[in-house]
């Protein structure tokens, strides 16, 4: 995995860990806890299509921050309609 991908994984995980909300990334039929670096390393690719699920007391703020960090690393993410 390229260094830029490694940086994205670390940045995404660190951002997610700032929030109390549950933040889960759906990729095909897999669900990955975004707070887990290992889960992200095994799943995240620049060409994937991802759906972000955010639930919890600070979900709005978490969602905004997660969208920003995905955009920063040029990763496309859709927001789950809950």
From TrEMBL:
Pfam families: PTS-HPr. InterPro entries: HPr-like (IPR000032), HPr-like_sf (IPR035895). Gene3D superfamilies: HPr-like. It comes from the Bacteria. Residues 12-71 form the HPr domain. This is HPr family phosphocarrier protein. It comes from Paenibacillus residui. The lineage of its organism: Bacteria, Bacillati, Bacillota, Bacilli, Bacillales.
């Amino acid at each position: 995995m390229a260094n830029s991908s490694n940086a994205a994984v670390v940045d995404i995980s660190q951002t997610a860990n700032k929030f109390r909300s549950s933040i889960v990334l759906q990729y095909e039929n897999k669900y990955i806890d975004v707070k887990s670096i290992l889960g992200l390393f095994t799943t995240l690719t620049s060409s994937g299509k991802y759906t972000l699920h955010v639930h919890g007391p600070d979900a709005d703020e978490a969602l905004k921050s997660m969208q920003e960090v995905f955009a920063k690393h040029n990763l496309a993410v859709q927001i789950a309609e809950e």
